[in-house]
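Throughout this review, each integer encodes one residue's backbone shape. One record appears below.

===
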Amino acid sequence: MYKPIVHQMRAGAPDKIQIWTDGSYILKKHDKTNLVDYDKEDLLLMANDGEFILPADEGDIRHANKLYDSNAKFDQSWIILPHNNIGDGYCQVIPYDQYVPKNSEIYKNLEENTGVIYQPFQEFEIEEFENNWDDWETPRAFKTTTGSGSRGVILLDPNRIHLGGKYVDVLSLSSMKKFIEFAKSENCKIIVQELVPNDPRLKKVNVDFVIREGKLLGYKWTRTDPTAVFTNWNFGWTVNTNYTNDIMQKIADYLISRGIYNAMMNFEAFTDMQSIMYLLEFNWRYSNSTFEDQAAKIDILGHYLYNKPFEFPIGEKKFSRYWQCAYYDDMKDYHCGK
């Protein structure tokens, strides 16, 4: 039986999707490797052989954009990054500048179209920001507009430094110089944004979802360990409720209306799980939070490849990560609180 081959980029971390698959495809790991490390000829060989490539970096979107003449119809459906449908059966990776920057129209129009809040921000050229970087009151978030994950983020709030991650209590000259140098290397702008309210009712969530041929196939909504709100949480809960279904459909419909045709991607947010949600950012690629898939035995990548709907367990279901992620309910003779 034929099985497609998927080449996974930057696949060295033990919590990536390599730990468990449904066996319907062959996953080949390439550590410390990005799409940009392959030239057009190598990538075309993969495409012609019916193989797929799974990038792990939003910078690869830029590289994918450079692989084809913008006036030509060149299919990129074998690159598993978000796609636009350009007609005649062709899909191309989304234009980076239209979607990824944190000051894009996607973010600016989010609340109007979905009810999800993206906190107000001011936008600066690097030189303008560099001359005024120490004028800001707390709390504030400083972000490069590029899709760079935590590398381009400083969170200033002395009341939340116990959460770790990028939180700081003061802006030091050395950290700000490093931040500005990164912005220059990315050739992007800088935004200064209001932080999400420090409200105990708001819980951090990390959500993976799949859109195929302009329809939402399913999602995995994770409420994370509250002591590890950034990455690498040791436990959490997958959540499937009327609220998550409703808000996820609104977000998917919004992205689809803005041209997203295929995507396996992620967003991070804070929510009270009832009526309020603050978006932190979209991650326009597969995320590193794939270990929960193993607990539910739902291979999101497999469902993407075969265009098959999926649904995680109803309600809130607690999982433990460790090396082989599992739901607590499935651990024999293990008892814990909800």
In short: The longest helix spans residues 242-257. The first strand starts at residue 5 and ends at 9. The chain has a mean pLDDT of 89.
